[in-house]
Amino acid sequence: MFDPIVFDNLKVGFENTLYDLDNLDELILITDRRDRLEMASMSREFVLQFSLRAHPEVTGEVVLSSSLEAIAAEILECPAVVCNFGSR
After folding, report:
1. CA-CA 20 to 30 A from 76: which of 3, 5, 21, 87?
2. What pLDDT, on the 0 to 100 scale, is given for residue 74?
3. What's phi and psi for 21, nearest 5 deg?
4. Hey, CA dihedral for 58, 10, 84, 63, is it positive or negative?
């Protein structure tokens, strides 16, 4: 067992919200999911792509990423940017 970092907590929050919009509300359709851990640089990236069910031509992507520096700063309790969030 490990202690989750901010990245893990945000990832779960985004996943829950977007999958609820897909499965329960049926407003979006999840079209792709990527959850990457780059072992060489110890960076992480989580991406969920989706489209609107009513307008399939409208697509979106939620991207959450974190670097080794940010993860180390959080664990060592140093002030720093912990993770980056973006949308496309």
Report:
1. 87
2. 83
3. -65, -30
4. negative
> Which pLDDT score, from 0 to 100, does residue 87 have?
66
Predicted local distance difference test score (pLDDT) of residue 47? 96
With the CA atoms of 4, 79, 73 and 49 taken in that order, what torsion angle do they form, in degrees rounded to the nearest 10? 60
In the sheet with 59-66, reading across from the earlier edge strand, the strands are 28-38, 43-52, 59-66, 84-87
Question: Which residue type is seen at 8?
Answer: D
Q: Looking at residue 83, what is its pLDDT?
A: 62
| Percentage of residues in the chain having pLDDT higher than 70 | 89
Compute CA distances 32 → 5, 35, 41, 48, 64, whole Å: 24, 10, 24, 6, 14
- Residue at token pair 């991406």: 47
Q: Can you tell me whether residue 56 is helix, strand or coil?
A: coil
